[in-house]
């Protein structure tokens, strides 16, 4: 690589095309699947707009190795719109095993020109960029779903051993830029750092420091994260779960040919939002505040919310809450109560049913449910309170 030149590439990962969005209602699943493809198309447009040399996809391109042919066809149609080369790394969802989707007749027959699968560990591709500079892609593809060794370290060590004891790409810019494309959890962020198959990021930093490699991009983590200045997770281009931190992005990476220093810009390409919302409810005003917050959410048809609710409401107030959730649920892609994170007590008050004109059997049933809700504990009390709320709403208490 000649001094003074800069290589620019787009790093992305975890497309998981074909993902079955079971967490969404059936009506929203088709829109979500299309949004994932649309995000992949936006990755290509970013590459074109930023005048990038190539795109790397760091694992889990597909949700699994067993996908409907239509998913492959639609993926290829999107990739045909890319104006730069694309390099796909097999990950844990789509490993290069005996059933690999990358070896299927449908993939081999339909894969567009300019799209390459990184099948070899070590230097899998040598790229000649448009300005004459050279980039070596050091790939660490997965060959099974449960590797027992650090695939990334093995790939880098393989390259290091071929350098015959030299320092590799020294900071004087005398050799090709070396970009590691890998997939997996890094050891420094793992809750079980002794687990097999983790990526040894301390080893990678040592290799970067001595000039053996220049930059590392990793898949597996769905949120964008800088592990070290030259080790990054781009994250998934479209959010997949509420707890993901900073999803929906790609990285635009510039590496200077002389200093080997990288500048990384985060570009948002996602259109969906999945998140949890914690809210305390203790009176009608709180229910009204929740309604106002839900109404202020834009792009409701592409937003999934899980509500973690705490507090204490009367039967009347709980019925109003249920009415709010029913009405707003028609607008959101998903809106439901996160039961495992919700602690909302419902207390029956004597005046909850006054003024509703109940009589006879209905009034007697309301009285029995009120007594049960007050005197019972656990599930029975919850069922009684929910039944009271439904009775209240059926009697027109929220109109």
Protein model, in words:
- Helices cover 30% and strands 24% of the residues.
- The chain has helices at 26-49, 69-79, 105-110, 151-161, 201-209, 284-296, 315-329, 360-375, 379-394; strands at residues 6-12, 54-57, 86-88, 115-117, 122-128, 134-139, 177-183, 215-219, 225-228, 231-233, 249-256, 262-268, 273-281, 303-314, 334-337, 343-347.
- The strands form three sheets. The protein has a six-stranded mixed beta sheet, with helices on one face. A six-stranded mixed beta sheet has the order 5-6-7-8-10-9. Strands 13, 14, 15 and 16 form a four-stranded parallel beta sheet that branches.
- Helix 1 packs parallel to helix 2 (69-79) and helix 7 crosses helix 9.
- The longest helix has 24 residues, at 26-49.
- The relative contact order is 0.11.
- The model is unreliable at 167-173 and 355-359 (pLDDT under 50).
Summarize the structure in short.
Helix 2 links the parallel strand 2 and strand 3 (86-88). Residues 167-173 and 355-359 have low confidence and may be disordered. This protein folds into two domains: 6-268, Metallo-dependent phosphatases (Purple Acid Phosphatase, chain A, domain 2); 273-394, no CATH class.
Key features of this structure:
Purple Acid Phosphatase, chain A, domain 2, 2 domains, six-stranded mixed beta sheet, 24% strand, single chain
């Amino acid at each position: 690589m000649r001094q003074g030149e800069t290589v620019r590439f787009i790093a992305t990962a975890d497309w998981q095309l074909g993902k079955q969005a079971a967490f969404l209602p059936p009506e929203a699943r088709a829109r979500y699947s299309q949004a994932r493809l649309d995000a992949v198309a936006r990755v290509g447009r970013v590459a074109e707009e930023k005048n990038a040399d190539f795109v790397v996809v760091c694992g889990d391109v597909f949700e699994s190795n067993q996908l409907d042919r239509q998913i492959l066809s639609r993926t290829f149609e999107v990739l045909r719109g890319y104006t730069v080369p694309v390099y796909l790394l097999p990950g844990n969802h789509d490993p290069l095993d005996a059933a690999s989707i990358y070896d299927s007749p449908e993939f081999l027959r339909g894969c567009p020109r300019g799209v390459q699968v990184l099948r070899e560990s070590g230097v899998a591709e040598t790229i000649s960029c448009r300005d004459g500079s050279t980039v070596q892609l050091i790939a660490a593809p997965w060959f099974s779903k449960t590797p027992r060794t650090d695939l990334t370290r093995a790939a880098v060590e393989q390259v290091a051993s071929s350098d015959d004891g030299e320092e590799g790409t020294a900071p004087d810019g005398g050799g090709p830029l070396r970009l590691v494309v890998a997939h997996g959890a890094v050891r420094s962020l793992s809750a079980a750092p002794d687990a097999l198959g983790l990526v040894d990021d301390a080893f990678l930093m040592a290799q970067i420091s001595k000039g053996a490699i220049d930059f590392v991009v990793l898949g597996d983590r769905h949120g964008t994260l800088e592990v070290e200045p030259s080790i990054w997770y781009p994250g998934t281009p479209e959010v997949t779960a509420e707890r993901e931190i900073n999803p929906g992005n790609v990285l635009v990476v510039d590496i200077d040919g002389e200093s080997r220093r990288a500048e990384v810009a985060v570009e948002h390409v996602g259109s969906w939002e999945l998140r949890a919302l914690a809210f305390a409810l203790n009176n009608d005003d709180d229910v009204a505040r929740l309604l106002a917050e839900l109404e202020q959410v834009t792009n409701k048809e592409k937003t999934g919310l899980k509500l973690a609710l705490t507090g204490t409401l009367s039967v009347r107030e709980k019925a109003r809450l249920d009415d709010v959730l029913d009405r707003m649920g028609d607008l959101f892609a998903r809106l439901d109560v996160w039961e495992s994170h919700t602690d909302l007590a419902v207390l029956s008050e004597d005046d909850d049913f006054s003024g509703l004109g109940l009589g006879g059997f209905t009034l007697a049933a309301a009285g029995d449910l009120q007594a049960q809700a007050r005197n019972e504990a656990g599930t029975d009390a919850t069922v009684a309170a929910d039944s009271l709320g439904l009775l209240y709403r059926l009697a027109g208490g929220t109109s």
